[in-house]
Amino acid sequence: MELSKRLNWIIEKLDKVEVIMDVGTDHGYIPIYLVKNNIASKVIASDINKEPLKKAKINASLDGMLDKIDLRLGAGLAPLKNKEANAVIIAGMGGNLIRDILENDLEKVKNLDYLILQPAQNPEVLRKYLYTSDYEILNEDICLDEGKYYEIFKVKYKAGDYISLEEIFYEISPTMLNKKLPLFKSYIENKIEKNEKVMEFIIDNTEHAIERKNELKEKNQKIQKLLKNF
């Protein structure tokens, strides 16, 4: 079983624990890898749909790991009992959805050693939530896989640990900016390019369209200033 660059990158962030939950497990590749490599003794692999769980069951059976992978049907953290897992992985969902999953089961989140969160879209939404809602940021990183950039957060709940920043720093991670990660400059440049393309498509002269265009222009100006740190 060969994992994608993104999945390997997620696994690199994990600390060895007894039980890990993989939310939205899809084909079950991460759970299989974790138990085969003794990163976890048991993995709870959940999905909101039955079909991915069937595929995960087949894959786990083929690898002889089915006895260590607990497959559960359900959304978010709903299939997990409080204090049943030490860590949780939520990857491949939108930042808004990941935020809502955490908020909906906050009591369970509070008892985890750590969470690995890897949004597929809207990382800025998730970052703002994490920074302002009692989470300790253990690590942030970036990955480029098949031409797409991904961000990852390793966090744990910690009451009173929150950061209030300018809005631009929810879009551009101050943690990664300070680290001067090798990929971060090209990631910022990619954001600027995307904003410019969106502005090109805004051709209406309505008040809303003009406001949106000005908002993107101002955002790009702020991002350009941050580039000077590299």
Q: What can be said about this structure in brief?
A:
This protein has about 230 residues and is of the alpha/beta class. Helix content is about 45%, strand content about 20%.
Write up this protein.
The chain has 2 domains: 5-164, Vaccinia Virus protein VP39 (Rossmann fold); 184-227. Helix content is 45%, strand content 22%. The chain starts with a helix and ends with a helix. The mean pLDDT is 92. The chain is of the alpha/beta class and 230 residues long. The protein has 10 helices and 7 strands. A 7-stranded mixed beta sheet has the order 3-2-1-4-5-7-6, sandwiched between helices.
List keywords for this structure.
230 residues, seven-stranded mixed β-sheet, Rossmann fold, 22% strand, elongated, 7 strands, alpha/beta, single chain
